[in-house]
Design goal:
Elements lengths: L4 E7 L1 H4 L19 H9 L3 E7 L18 H12 L4 E5 L13 H16 L11 E6 L16 H5 L2 H12 L3 E3 L16 H19 L1
Parallel strand pairs: 1-2, 1-3, 3-4, 4-5
Helix pairs in contact: 2-7, 3-4, 4-6
Length: 216
């Protein structure tokens, strides 16, 4: 029996499976079956092994002075790659939390943060077991109408509209495949940040198409 192709998905609360926020406090999580990474696994089948690596409030590369330095994707990225190797494909979908006003960065800065993670995959501190994996960069969809999370993402909706264009440029500079999640799904009307269940299913299917194009 052929060995399954290993696909690592590195993301934030939407990869973790957070439900749209209805009250401020600890996030609630969708059941495993309802997350987009599980939909991705279903679409790809047994020839692939999808590894979800989502963390609530994860940024691309920025240390969060409120949530903690461990929320920086860069701090955990290399150990994550090592622990899950060998890998055939690494998917990165981050940037939503970088929109928070505490970071004060532009849409291009956010794309560069995601690009820095792509660069680690291509030029790791030491060779990865199994060799370098392929890469796929996904820009998150724009923020929707904010309610309870308005203070967390003040100014974010307008800035988020520039993510896809800048992420596409960061991917093109590196010769990396790109997917605009906003071309397929929208953020929930419930909180403007997270995804409704039907959108998880749609995203999983869209990403599966790109994965097959990359890995065959």
């Amino acid at each position: 029996m052929a060995t399954a192709l290993n696909v690592l998905v590195f993301g934030d609360s939407n990869t973790w499976g957070a439900k749209p926020v209805t009250v401020l406090g600890a996030p609630e999580r969708y059941e495993y079956e309802d997350r987009w990474t599980t939909a991705l696994q279903r679409e790809l089948g047994d020839a692939y092994h999808v590894i979800p690596e989502g963390l609530v409030n994860r940024t691309s590369v920025f240390d969060d002075p409120i949530e903690g330095e461990h929320k920086s994707g860069r701090r955990y990225f290399w150990p994550c790659l090592e622990s899950h190797s060998p890998l055939d494909l690494v998917i990165i979908m981050l940037g939503t939390n970088d929109l928070k006003p505490r970071f004060g960065v532009t849409a291009w800065d956010i794309a560069c943060g995601a690009g820095a993670l792509l660069d680690i995959v291509a030029n790791p501190p030491k060779p990865l077991f199994g060799g370098p994996p392929q890469r796929l960069l996904i820009s998150p969809p724009p923020l929707g109408k904010l309610d309870l999370l308005a203070g967390h993402f003040a100014g974010g909706p307008e800035k988020s509209k520039g993510l896809a264009e800048n992420f596409a440029a960061a991917a093109e500079m590196r010769g990396v495949p790109f997917l605009d999640a906003g071309a397929h799904i929208r953020s929930s009307d419930g909180d403007g940040v997270h995804f409704d269940p039907d959108q998880h299913a749609v995203l999983g299917k869209a990403v599966a198409g790109r994965v097959r194009e990359i890995l065959g």
